[in-house]
Specification:
Strand order of the largest sheet: 3-4-8-9-10-12-11
Largest sheet: 7 strands, mixed
GO molecular function, one term: hydrolase activity
Number of domains: 1
CATH superfamily: Metallo-dependent phosphatases
Number of helices: 13
CATH architecture: 4-Layer Sandwich
Organism: Hondaea fermentalgiana
InterPro entries: Calcineurin-like_PHP, Metallo-depent_PP-like
Number of strands: 13
Distance between the termini: 39 Å
Order of helices and strands: EEHEEEHEHEHHHHEHHEHHHHEEEE
Radius of gyration: 19 Å
CATH class: Alpha Beta
Structural class: alpha/beta
Protein name: Shewanella-like protein phosphatase 2
Keywords: Signal
Amino acid sequence: MLSFVVVLSVVALGLQAYLASASLEECHEAGAAAGSRACVQREEVATGGRGVVVCEADRVVTSSRVVAVADVHGDLERLEQALELAGLVTPGPRAEERHWAGGDAVLVQTGDIIDRGPDTVRIFEWLSRLRSEAVEAGGCVVQLLGNHELMNLAGDLRYADAQETAQFGGIAARRRKLDAGSSLGDFLRALPVAARVTQLDVEADPAEDDYSNKNGPGGGGGGAAAGGSPEKENEEESFKGTAFTTIFAHAGVPAWLASTHSVSDINKDVRQLLMGSSERQVQRHSVTNKLLLGQGLLWTRRYAEPNEREVCAELYQMLSSLKAHRMLVGHTVQQTGRPTIRCEGRLVLADTGMSRAYGGGLSVVELQPWLTS
C-alpha cells in the first residue's frame, strides 16, 4: 500500500501531472489536504465543456479532460492505481471488477504495454473493455503502438517476462496469438503510432490562440502537412480560437517525417506495412523501413537528448508542420520518477518507469488546453 499523494501542478505550462507513491483512499478523504485538492480539481474539470466531439483511433476533438499514461510494461496493478488516481476507473480489488468512471474524459496510452511484466494479456483485455465503456459514457480511449509491441510482432521476445508468456500459454502460443490473423495480432497491427488530440477551451482568449503563437518562440505557424486530410484539417479549423492540439506518439514524431506526412498519413503507411504481415515480414520491415527504424517514431530518443536548443528547434519545426501546439511521448524513462517538461511546455516526456520492472514513479499526466507564458 502506498503512503502519500504528491500533486505536481505546472499551471504556467498548462499541464498537471499527478504523481503518487500513496494510498488512493487519501485522495478521497477530506483530511488529506493535497489529495483533496487533487480530487476537487479533477471533479471541477470533468463537469464543464461539450464533451468528446470526435473519437477516432488516431484523432480526438474534445472539451473534456485529457489524461495520458505512458509505458506500462505488464504491470496491471500500477496501471489500475494510475487510472484510479486520475478518477478514470472505479475502485475494486481487481481489474476485472473495475469499470470506466471517467465520463466524457479522454485517455491516451502511449504504447509499450507488453514485455517486462506478468500481466500483458489481462491489461489488453481490461483496456478493451474500458474502451467500450468509455464510448458508452461519452468518453474516448486511444491506444498507441510502442516499440515493444513491434518487437513482439517481429518475434523478438528478448524482454518477455516468464509469467507473461505463461499467460499467453507458452512461447509457441504467444507467437501464434501475436501473428497475423489472430485477434490480438491484428489489433496490434492496426494500432496507430501517433494521434492528435484537439482540446476545445471555452475559456480561451481567441487573440492568444493561433498556431503561429504556440509553435515556438518567434512563431513559425505552419500550414497543413503535405498529404494531409483536407476534411479533417478544415474541421479542426472550425474550432480556431478555442482549439489546442497535442500530438501523442510513443517515442516522438521526427521533424523529417512531419514535413511530408500528416498524422493520418503516418498511421496509414505503418498500417499498410503491418496488416497481414507475418512475423518474418514484420521483422524485415523493422530493419528496412525508415518509419520503423531507430530514428523513426517508435524508437527515437531525439526528444530526450540533453541539447535543449537543438531538441526544441526540431520540436517546433515538427509542430509547425503538423499544425499542433505540443507533443507528449513515452519510451525514455525519466530518472526523476516524474514527467519531464521541456521547450516552454511544448514537450512532455511522460515515461516515469512506473512498472515495477523499473521501480519508477507512478504517474498520470493531465493536459490543459493552453500554454501560459
